[in-house]
Specification:
With 72 residues, this protein is mainly α. It has 1 helix and no strands. It starts with 32 loop residues before the first helix and ends in a 9-residue tail after the last helix. The model has no long low-confidence stretch (mean pLDDT 78).
């Protein structure tokens, strides 16, 4: 069997969800709670750390009059 479909350890077991977070019967869920948490953490990292750095760099370049786009 392909390793992509085999869980190597049981430490990744998902915690029991609060009743408000459970889906109604017959509803499909295309993301696991762990996957949702990873995406939420990634979004927070981008919004709170990476984006401010990009804004700072663009502001610096603008102050130097160098905001032209390089087109190939």
């Amino acid at each position: 069997m392909n390793k992509a479909f085999v869980r190597e350890n049981d430490s990744d077991e998902e915690e029991e969800l609060e009743p408000a977070l459970k889906l109604p019967a017959g509803t499909r869920n295309y993301i696991t709670p762990a996957g949702h948490a990873r995406l939420k953490n990634e979004l927070e990292h981008i919004v709170k750390r990476e984006r401010p750095q990009v804004v700072e760099t663009v502001a610096w370049a603008d102050s130097n009059g160098d905001r032209s786009e390089k087109r190939a």
